[in-house]
Amino acid sequence: MKNKNFGFGTQIRKSPFFDATVRWGATGFSVYNHMYIPRDFGSPEQNFWNLVNTAILCDVSVERQVEITGPDAYKFIQLLTPRDLSKLSVGQCKYVLIVNNEGGILNDPVLLRLAENHFWLSLADSDVLFWAQGVALNSGLDVKITEPDASPLQLQGPNSGEIMAKLFGEEIKELKYYWLKELDLDGIPLIVSRTGWSSELGYELFLRDGSKGDDLWEKIMTAGKNFDLKPGHTSSIRRIEGGMLSYHADADINTNPYELGLDRLVYLESEINFVGKEALKKINKEGVKRKQVGLEIKCDPLEGPNTIFWPLHKDNKKIGKVTSAVYSPRLKKNIGLAIVDSDQSNLDNQLKVEIDGKSFDTTVVQKPFFDPKKQITSAKI
To answer: Which among 104, 117, 112, 116 is positioned nearest to 152, based on CA atoms?
Structure first.
């Protein structure tokens, strides 16, 4: 594939679906986890409406997997995360945090349990493979940590269940939210989970043979033809509506779980040992100086997601920053996530945001902005 508008190099990997995404209209890429990810299939607003009204197929192979196997794999995965995994069943997934010794967030992956001592961490953008290998080296546990040949696609939107049934039969509709199955599609080996970074009904199909990427993409698009399936990209509009975090924007190594209101992902009341436990105990006891909030920004519709952090002020004093913001065509307002001083986090608080040298009013509001109880993603199909 040659295109004079794309500048590609050998040091950054292409996904197994790369050629298919270009063939189906990808016009822009960015880099995530040392791989190219398609970011542009035309209008972001149309992509949003395709997602919430019908279905989209997204190449998210950049969600690299850290595979943990060996006799001590369960003990090791519990060492990596402050979330209690004692009730995690084989075939189940959980949203977890990986923190460092100071309690700073290194990643917020989805954890998949494929077998008793076989796990995948489906990563946001960071080098957790190296972190896990370093922790393992000093853990005294018998584990093997690798990056498997596993490349996910996201099939998301209200029609995704019917498309999956077309591909795999009606029984796939019995797959529960945050559970997985090992499947084969005409000789293509897959792990299928009912997960996704969209706040909509959806599935992730983890291709386990990179040579079959083009074949898998075309089979899905063919199955979705009568269900208005469109090629697409992860929607900033919908994920901000759903209050979903984007690592490096809404969370990073200098952010701890309590600042983000993710106390439920930290379990301190047991003998479970994990990296960062003492630091998180201290933070929990002392309280936090910052908190994440939702914002409504009162200005003309934003032309796209923010690409820098916008400073927030109260009484001419900087008290935080907007980490993610976008115009929601459904809610007909500008919405965003921000991190602010704790004493400024109360609902209805009026703040000022600086955008391109201009000041605008903002109001602290409840988040998520849409479907707060996740009834869409967890509904029985």
So the answer is: 112
Is the peptide bond between 257 and the residue preceding it cis, with omega within 30 degrees of 0? Answer: no
Half-sphere exposure of 372 (CA within 13 A, CB side): 6
Eight-class DSSP state of 179 = B
Q: Work out whether the CA dihedral 224, 228, 230, 234 comes out positive or negative.
A: negative
Calculate mean pLDDT across residues 202-219: 98
Terminal CA-CA length for the chain: 39
Q: What is the pLDDT of residues 14-55, one digit of tens each?
A: 999 999 999 999 999 999 999 999 999 999 999 999 999 999
Six-digit token string for 237: 């509009």
DSSP 183: E
Q: What is the pTM of this model?
A: 0.96
CB atoms within 10 A of CB 258: 18
Q: Which domains does the chain have, with CATH numbers?
A: 18-63+149-239 (3.30.1360.120), 65-146 (3.30.70.1400), 289-370 (2.40.30.110)
DSSP 13: B
Report the DSSP pairing between strands 105-107 and 35-40. Answer: unpaired
Give residue-wise pLDDT tens across range 344-373.
999 999 999 999 999 999 999 999 999 999
